[in-house]
Amino acid sequence: xxxxxxxxxxxxxxxxxxxxxxxxxxxxxxxxxxxxxxxxxxxxxxxxxxxxxxxxxxxxxxxxxxxxxxxxxxxxxxxxxxxxxxxxxxxxxxxxxxxxxxxxxxxxxxxxxxxxxxxxxxxxxxxxxxxxxxxxxxxxxxxxxxxxxxxxxxxxxxxxxxxxxxxxxxxxxxxxxxxxxxxxxxxxxxxxxxxxxxxxxxxxxxxxxxxxxxxxxxxxxxxxxxxxxxxxxxxxxxxxxxxxxxxxx
Length: 249
Prior knowledge:
This protein is α/β, with parallel strands linked by helices. 47% of the residues lie in helices and 11% in strands. It has 11 helices and 7 strands. It has helices at 10-23, 35-44, 62-71, 86-94, 107-118, 126-136, 167-178, 182-189, 193-206, 212-222, 234-238; strands at 2-6, 28-32, 49-52, 55-56, 59-60, 77-81, 99-102. Helix 1 (10-23) links the parallel strand 1 and strand 2.
């Protein structure tokens, strides 16, 4: 497993590296102290996950995440930040992060985040999920389909039939969670963009939701894991047709 840590504090990167090696002894770690260094690594390396701080010398706040995802839309990003505000967490979800770990969290939260993302799931702080769903107006929204009320600690992979989805809808959901815009999903699935947009609309209706961000929060809340292959190839994101700069729910 290859992981990139982007943080401007040497001590924090070293501590995070120790925790990651406890979780995965054979892990290969790359380090960057600036956003530009992180983007350079991301554009040239096969990576499983990026851990990204939001407060960097050359990239502040959610703009750092936006720039990294613009460069590598298919690359899973877990934000690790001292900012614990629900507003920032919500904005990072909108910008297609697959996880958010406050720096005040215990080591177990880091393990849970990397386990969830490697399995094609989403990790958000438990304390923020209820507030996010309440702010979005989805705290009472039912989740359709059999076998879908999975607890947050569930370790089993979900399936299309288990979630009441068609195979194509399930594949679309997996790429959507990964952070790809609809045109990039269409490219990978060999479909027209309008077809993928229809699948996304079906997914939102199926789960009784309105927006992609609500869908991501619901998946984190239920602990749903989609089994997405974790390694991403920068060559795919460099393709002009990958539409990395376009964002659409």
